């Protein structure tokens, strides 16, 4: 009885593999060598890519470190500008100036009526805003636009900011 069970299993195994091509041990060895070579090549490329990526990350870290160590002094208040991305260029020298220093200077120069206020309106421009009702800050008219930042000129201290921080 036990012998018959073995025969059935053997026949089933033979039927399962009857149409599989027979490969020699040499062919199996060649396939294994090719697969090993392909895996080794893939591992080599992966290491190269990882090394390049690590090198680029180190370059970016070093550039950010240098950028952060560079101190810019505001020519108006002589304090260090902590957030260079919020600074505006000086009209005369082009050096960075605190946004609040520019706003304070414009408020001194543009003394208007009590119902007027100077506000940043975007794209390097400030506006003299007139409020018919000083308590209603939603409704106003722009009486005059003050062009502060020249659009065609790009300050040299600004050029590196987007490139550095987009790679972080």
Descriptive overview:
The protein is α+β, with helices and mostly antiparallel strands and 168 residues long. The protein has two domains: 24-68; 84-166, no CATH class. It is 49% helix and 14% strand. The chain is built from four helices and five strands, in the order ααββαβββα. The chain has a three-stranded antiparallel sheet with strand order 3-4-5, covered by helices on one side. Strands 1-2 form a two-stranded antiparallel sheet. Strand 3 and strand 4 form a beta hairpin. The longest helix is centred in the first third of the chain and has 45 residues, at 25-69. The protein is elongated. The termini are far apart.
Radius of gyration: 36 Å
Task: Work out the helix count.
Answer: 4
Q: Record the strand order, biggest sheet.
A: 3-4-5
Largest sheet: 3 strands, antiparallel
- Strand fraction equals 5-15%
- Give the integer mean of the pLDDT values: 79
Order of helices and strands: HHEEHEEEH
Number of domains: 2
- Flag low-confidence runs: none
Helix content: 40-55%
Top keywords for this entry?
alpha+beta, 168 residues, single chain, elongated, 2 domains, three-stranded antiparallel β-sheet, 5 strands
């Amino acid at each position: 009885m036990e012998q018959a069970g073995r025969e059935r299993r053997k026949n089933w195994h033979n039927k399962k593999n009857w149409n599989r091509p027979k490969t020699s041990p040499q062919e199996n060895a060649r396939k294994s060598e090719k697969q090993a070579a392909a895996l080794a090549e893939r591992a080599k490329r992966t290491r190269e890519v990882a090394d390049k990526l690590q090198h680029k990350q180190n370059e970016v870290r070093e550039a950010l470190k240098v950028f952060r160590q560079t101190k810019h002094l505001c020519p108006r208040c002589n304090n260090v500008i902590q957030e260079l991305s919020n600074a505006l260029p000086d009209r005369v020298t082009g050096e960075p100036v605190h946004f609040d220093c520019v706003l304070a200077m414009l408020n001194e120069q543009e003394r208007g009526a009590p119902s007027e206020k100077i506000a940043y309106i975007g794209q390097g421009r400030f506006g003299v805003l007139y409020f018919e009702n000083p308590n209603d800050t939603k409704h106003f008219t722009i009486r005059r636009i003050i062009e502060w930042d020249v659009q065609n000129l790009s300050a040299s201290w600004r050029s590196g900011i987007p490139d550095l921080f987009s790679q972080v």
